[in-house]
Amino acid sequence: MSSVIDFLRRHPKSVSGVYLFAFFMTFVYMPYDVLLKPLLRGGVASAEEVWLGYMLTGWAAKLTEPLHWAIYAGLAYGFTRERPWAWTFAALYTLQVAVGSVIWVVLYASYGPFGYVMTVVVVGLFVALAAQVCRAHPHRSRLADLA
After folding, report:
1. Cβ–Cβ under 8 Å, residues 73 and 26
2. Which of 39, 46, 93, 129 has the fewest beta carbons under 10 Å from its own?
């Protein structure tokens, strides 16, 4: 646990937030989603997973849950061990959430004009978060030298 606290102290809030999200998803939500939710909510038929804004249900969702879990676990591991790829991976994941938000609204939501305005705001926030994570990359100066 001390390594988590040390990480949070050393890095900007944007990176710490993504790290805590990955940690929560790995150790709290995904175990619930994969192991307990089917027992509590009616089996595989109740499973739902969203990939790049597309909703999968039933067996398609259930079979892709471990992949989602692996993504979160990989991100939590990468940040905990301060692997250089974790920052890039986190930024790309955050950008795909932004793209997925747009796809979700187009395919599934009927919020009207207010919903589209809110989607633009949400996308802007996720793009800004991805940029902050990139800027906080501990090896950024070495990456700039390679460019």
Report:
1. yes
2. 39
